[in-house]
Amino acid sequence: MDVSVIIPHYGDTSTLKRAIESALDQTLPPQEIIVVDDASPVQDREALARLVKELSPSVRVVQLHENSGPGGARNAGWDAAGGDVVAFLDSDDSWLPTKLERQCGALESQALDLVGGPNVWLALGDTTSEQGPRNAAVVTRRALLFKNRFATSSVMVRREVGLRFNAERRYAEDYELWLRLHLNGMRLGRLPTPLSVSYKRPFGDSGLSANLAAMARNQLHVYYRARADRLLSFGEWLVASAWSVARSGRRFVKSFAFRVFENRRPR
């Protein structure tokens, strides 16, 4: 399979080289790496151009002139991609070396439309789990309805699937796409061990994930839209929404407790 890697990017390039190099160093190298610059300031665009020039000819830039957010940027890269499949990588994450090889194998052998898995948080110290199982578990409706089963930087999807990210949504746009793909009859698989590495906590840290309230509101709206489009029954919508509120409350408590612990820890 030919793989197109899509990396949405805005602003500072300090972590971008690490992300690109993790894609270039795959045991199954990608056909192309598309960095979508989401209307960065001029000085950052110049830094990006210099960085890309240093790296492989397979790396190219799609330049957006208006900020589109993560969903819009990924869609622009998706539309420009030429591979059989697209694989998403956030500019502040990286991949484990066998990620693409394992995923392409699962997509072909199990007739999947999407395959992904969890991130490993670097602080856990486990970056060797790429040697884990190569068969993906098919994700059920119930499992996906109550939890986002895929870290965005872990996801590979067939390029020709008809749906795209909701460009108007700045939070939970990834979960909305996975859920809608499943509710429209696509086969989604999840590898049990991490495929990608995150350098920040899953929520309540820097970046978009820092705004827990906005994340909670947008996830509820994902269910509302799915119900309005008759993709969910009334009972599914009600239970999923209630569960989402409970999970969001738990995240607030965990984030608060972590910050208290960090502030009290000796420097």
| CATH architecture title of the largest domain | Alpha-Beta Complex
Low-confidence stretches: none
Mean pLDDT, rounded to whole units?
88
Work out the helix count.
8
Q: Let me know the number of strands.
A: 11
Order of helices and strands: EHEHEHEEHEEEHEHEEHH
Q: CATH homologous superfamily of the largest domain? A: Spore Coat Polysaccharide Biosynthesis Protein SpsA, Chain A
Protein traits:
three-stranded mixed β-sheet; 8 helices; alpha/beta; eight-stranded mixed β-sheet; 267 residues
Account of the protein in words:
With 267 residues, the chain is α/β, with parallel strands linked by helices. The protein folds into two domains: 3-199, Spore Coat Polysaccharide Biosynthesis Protein SpsA, Chain A (Alpha-Beta Complex), CATH 3.90.550.10; 209-264. It is built from eight helices and eleven strands. The protein has helices spanning 16-24, 42-54, 69-80, 99-110, 141-146, 173-183, 212-228, 234-264, and strands spanning 3-9, 32-38, 59-64, 85-88, 93-95, 114-116, 119-121, 137-138, 156-158, 188-190, 196-198. An eight-stranded mixed sheet has the order 3-2-1-4-9-6-10-8, with helices on both faces. It has a three-stranded mixed sheet with strand order 5-11-7. Helix 6 (173-183) runs parallel beside helix 7 (212-228). The radius of gyration is 18 Å and the shape is globular.
